[in-house]
Specification:
The complex is a heterodimer of chains A (222) and B (81).
Chain A: E1 2-7, H1 14-23, E2 27-32, E3 43-46, H2 66-76, E4 81-84, H3 86-93, E5 100-102, E6 110-118, E7 134-141, E8 145-147, H4 150-158, E9 162-166, E10 178-182, E11 188-191, H5 211-221
Parallel strand pairs in A: 1-2, 1-3, 3-4, 4-11
Antiparallel strand pairs in A: 5-8, 6-7, 6-9, 9-10, 10-11
Chain B: E1 3-10, H1 17-28, E2 40-46, H2 53-67, E3 73-80
Antiparallel strand pairs in B: 1-2, 1-3
The chains are: A alpha/beta (222), B alpha+beta (81).
């Protein structure tokens, strides 16, 4: 399976994401923001970082990168897309996911190991987990507070579209402890914490993040 | 020269931690006037000559698509002499 990893100017976590894709059993394909070609990938990851320096709003400029028009079209046709951290912000700005990520409620940039609960394990990115499974992976962001209006929140809750929640104290003021959500179709997933930094116990708090990358292989093979 | 100004503010129901931080810094400096503070963005756009109605319509469009995120922000477009 070919999983594309997009690099925007200012992306940080593309190497780790590509490494995690390989560890999960797929082939990692580098995609550049200015590419007008998705290189026949089966799925796409938008990794973390500070694309375009977070100018204007996080993810606001990246949304208009040439490669994003292709991602938006492909996502509409059902291609699995995972946005991590800044990638989640880009997906919200692209309106592939509802809501927005705003400044952490305490204004601090957070960098720590965070426990999350996988709430929905039916997406192509979370099927390796058991529903209710708790994992510890790094969380590192300044704008991670998920906000949306009450109608959207009720819809996300009612349709089971919250895929992960923070466990314990709310780290950033996200509504309903939301750490990750999916679209109505279930193929686009945005996640604030970083599973790609937790695929190896030598360098991460656990290897439990690997499940996102084995999930996508399973989803494709099915 | 006239400027087109776009003011972008977080919607009232969206938490504004930066505004809150400013509001709590003011009394520490002896300023006691503020009941609350909201922080936003201001864009100043120069055009050749007086802004036309067509340009203002275009700016409205740009404000909706790029300058603001309608999920969390409101904007106002106006001309400043």
């Amino acid at each position: 399976m070919r999983v594309g990893v997009i690099t925007f100017p200012g992306t940080l976590d593309d190497r780790d994401a590509a490494r995690a894709v390989v560890a999960g059993g797929s082939e990692a394909v580098s995609l550049w923001h200015a590419d007008a070609d998705l290189k026949n990938v089966d799925a796409v990851i938008l990794p973390g970082g500070f694309s375009y320096g977070d100018y204007l709003r996080c993810g606001a400029i990246s949304r208009f990168a040439p490669v994003m028009q292709l991602v938006i079209d492909a996502a509409g046709k059902g291609m699995p897309v995972l946005g991590i951290c800044n990638g989640f912000q880009v997906l919200c700005e692209s309106h592939l996911l509802p809501g927005a990520l705003t400044r952490n409620s305490d204004l601090h940039f957070l960098c720590r190991d965070q426990e999350i609960e996988i709430v929905n394990n039916t997406t192509p990115w979370t099927s390796s987990y058991k529903a209710g499974e708790k994992i510890v992976i790094p969380l590192k962001n300044g704008e991670g507070s998920f906000q949306c209006d009450d109608t959207t929140l009720a819809q996300l809750e009612g349709e089971g579209r919250i895929i992960a929640r923070y466990v314990g104290q709310n780290p950033n003021g996200s509504r309903n402890l939301i750490a990750g959500i999916t679209n109505a179709r279930g193929n686009v997933v945005g996640l604030m914490p970083h599973p790609e930094h937790a695929i190896d116990e030598l360098t991460g708090p656990s290897a439990a993040g690997l499940g996102f990358f084995t999930s996508i292989l399973n989803a494709m093979v099915k | 020269m006239a400027k087109i100004v776009v003011d972008v503010m977080l919607k009232p129901e969206i938490l504004d931690p930066q505004g809150n931080a400013v509001a709590s810094a003011l009394p520490r400096l002896g300023f006691s006037f503020a009941k609350s503070v909201r922080q936003g963005k201001r864009f100043e756009i120069e055009v050749e000559g007086e802004p036309t109605a067509a340009q203002l319509t275009e700016v409205e469009k740009a404000a909706e698509v790029l300058l603001s995120n309608p999920v969390i922000e409101n904007y106002v477009v106006r001309v400043e002499k």
